[in-house]
């Protein structure tokens, strides 16, 4: 039986995490990987113990939901909380990271970003990534391809 490629596997994990999102505006998932091992994952949602956007609506300020912590940040904070280094790791994200997440990714020592969809790709974020020598690449993701693997007979 054929196996899915590592990139497909980790991107599928990010899309699975996005299904846990509690923000109505956009469901995002992020998976941090080191040496082909998942070290952290996150999705966009409220601070622990706070109400969720899906239950009470988004809390909008200047066009952004301020209740939500982004998936990338949640994954990075999981590393910090568990004492796991993200230095030289790779992050797989369902959508191109926002400017603040990009800055955090750089500061956390992540060296590669793979994303499935463009989403307001900020010019300054791209400049910072290039300046820091961080690779970023849009890779296609197809839930249909994953479904095909699941329905194949071994």
TrEMBL record:
Q: A single Pfam family, by name?
A: dCMP_cyt_deam_1
Q: Which UniProt keywords apply?
A: Hydrolase, Metal-binding, Zinc
Q: Where is the active site?
A: 72
Highest taxon in the source lineage: Bacteria
Molecular function (GO) terms for this protein are: dCMP deaminase activity; zinc ion binding
Instruction: List, for all copies, the residue spans of the domain called CMP/dCMP-type deaminase.
Output: 5-137
Name the protein family.
Belongs to the cytidine and deoxycytidylate deaminase family.
Q: What is this protein called?
A: ComE operon protein 2
**Annotated Gene Ontology cellular component terms:** cytoplasm
- PANTHER family the UniProt entry points to: DEOXYCYTIDYLATE DEAMINASE, DEOXYCYTIDYLATE DEAMINASE-RELATED
Q: Where does this protein hold Zn(2+)?
A: 70, 98, 101
- Required co-factors: Zn(2+)
InterPro entries, sorted: APOBEC/CMP_deaminase_Zn-bd, CMP_dCMP_dom, Competence_ComEB, Cytidine_deaminase-like, dCMP_deaminase, dCMP_deaminase-rel, Deoxycytidylate_deaminase_dom
Question: Per the UniProt entry, what are the Gene Ontology biological process annotations, in alphabetical order?
Answer: pyrimidine nucleotide metabolic process
